[in-house]
Amino acid sequence: MNTHTRRSTPGRRTLLRGAALGAAVPLIPATASAKDTEGTTAPAGRGRAADSVSYRWLGTSGWRMDLARGARTATVLVDPYVTRFDTGLFSGSFDPGTRLRTDKALVREHAGTPEVVCVTHTHWDHLNDVPYLARSTGARVIGTETTYHVLRSFGVDAGQISVVKGGEVLDFDGYVVEVASSRHSRNGSYSYFAPGTLNAPPAAAPRTISDLPEGDTLAFKVTPDGRPSALFMGASDFDERSFAGLEPDIAMVAVASSAATYRYVPRLLQTLGHPDVLVPVHWDDFEKPLSRPPRKDGTGLDDFLAQAREVSSASRLVVPDYRTVYGADLRPRS
How far is residue 138's CA from residue 134's CA, in Å, rounded to a whole number? Predict the structure, then answer.
């Protein structure tokens, strides 16, 4: 379903792409002035659209989206993993038995009080902090049946959890969440960590990262009223047929960790209709704290950027930073 027919804004494509096409925005701290991709200050006339919606990258595939609605703000989270503990994944000593833990103060600092939490899949680097958030804030969690059963095992109320499979279009006050069936990234062996699904709550709440199976993978397109739509991916593979027709204005695209998926970038960008703004995610070392600058984990960010420039030259590329607050057009806010 293309939600533009309900919530489109005239001239949005021109607004989002700007004058500099296909250039990558560097890592810019939140204190910097809003710049376009040529480095010049963005026109002030865009303020209303940019100020009503803001984005913060929480690392990995996590995002915080704040939508101003009159006197109040609604917060939507996607895969909010901010505790970022060490499993040895990036040092060559990966331990599947690493214990799950949540830094509650850190989660409160970065996640705020969400209204909705979207979970793409149930691996620890996407779900770990969600049980605490759901219990402490009462937020609605949207995810797979596996996500449902895992959250129930952690004591989350069933009434807070919306089970989806892909194809659902959920209408909230001021924005729409569209769900698409997706696929998990493939490693060099054409497989991935902890596959499997749950059809009932586990006998005990998960204790280690290997206790959290993938549980099927989703993508989410969020369309605020009268503002650009954004697609959030949590892994670097996709279902071409499920993604056809989504046509987001902004796409948060997971960077591939291997070349196992055939023509991943060209196929994806063509299927999505060459989005106005492309934002690579899941390329950082997510076991380093958010207080440090993002560090590439070797998953191929540079190769992704090169392919994206070649096959979608009209798209504006934005490499996100943890410290930067972005407006509705994915330009840094002043």
Answer: 5
Taking only the tens place, the pLDDT of each residue in 157-215 is 999 999 999 999 999 999 999 999 999 877 777 676 777 899 999 999 999 999 999 99
- pTM of structure: 0.86
252 Cβ neighbours under 8 A, 6+ residues apart: 61, 63, 78, 230, 231, 232, 233, 279, 281
Model pLDDT for residues 271-298, shown as the tens digit of each residue: 999 999 999 999 999 999 999 999 987 7
Sheet containing 116-118: which strands, arranged edge to edge?
161-163, 140-143, 116-118, 72-78, 63-69, 53-57, 325-326
Do 305 and 256 contact (CB within 8 A), yes or no?
no
Angle at 71 between CA 110 and CA 158, to 5 degrees: 55
Distance in angstroms (rounded) separating the CA atoms of residues 102 and 129: 6
Question: Residue 119 in contact with residue 167, Cβ under 8 Å?
Answer: no
